[in-house]
Amino acid sequence: QLQLVESGGGLVQPGGSLRLSCAASGFTLDYYAIGWFRQAPGKERERVACISNSGGSTKYADSVKGRFTIPRDSAKNTVDLQMNSLKPEDTAVYYCAASGHRSCLGYVPWDYWGQGTLVTVSS
Predict the structure, then answer these.
(1) SS3 for 36?
(2) Do 93 and 71 touch, CB atoms closer than 8 A?
(3) CA gyration radius for the chain?
């Protein structure tokens, strides 16, 4: 069974950091572009970060650029989302997704999705 599972969500104070992890079972993430998305209540889903299958290319939404990074760990078969300098507006359910398209450029069809993990930024 091909599956993505996110972990690491929780409550964090503004200015704090949190690291989310996206783990795969049944397939190898190295062959896929991986995206991290978020959806806040009443808002549309937003792609915040993406890494190509080779790891050579990353793209970030303007809202998180300079604060979030998307490291890939081939040995663990995971792709994380390191979130620093968190703001209340970062509060959302975060999802990871995998695409056989392999690149983060242009239209990217997402083949597999995780179930999401909640991040709450509040004092």
Answers:
(1) strand
(2) no
(3) 13
Please count the helices (runs of H) and the strands (runs of E) in the chain: 0, 12
SS3 5: strand
Please choose, from the candidates 83, 74, 72, 62, the residue with its C-alpha nearest in 3D space to the C-alpha of residue 19. 83
- The DSSP code sequence of 29-43 is GGGSEEEEEEE-TTS
- What are the CA-CA distances from residue 91 to residues 21, 77, 87 (Å)? 17, 26, 8
Between vectors from CA 39 to CA 75 and to CA 16, what angle results, nearest 5°?
A: 65
Chain segment 70-120, per-residue pLDDT in tens:
999 999 999 999 999 999 999 999 999 999 988 898 889 999 999 999 999
Q: Please state, as a whole number, how many other Cβ atoms lie within 10 Å of the Cβ of residue 16.
A: 13
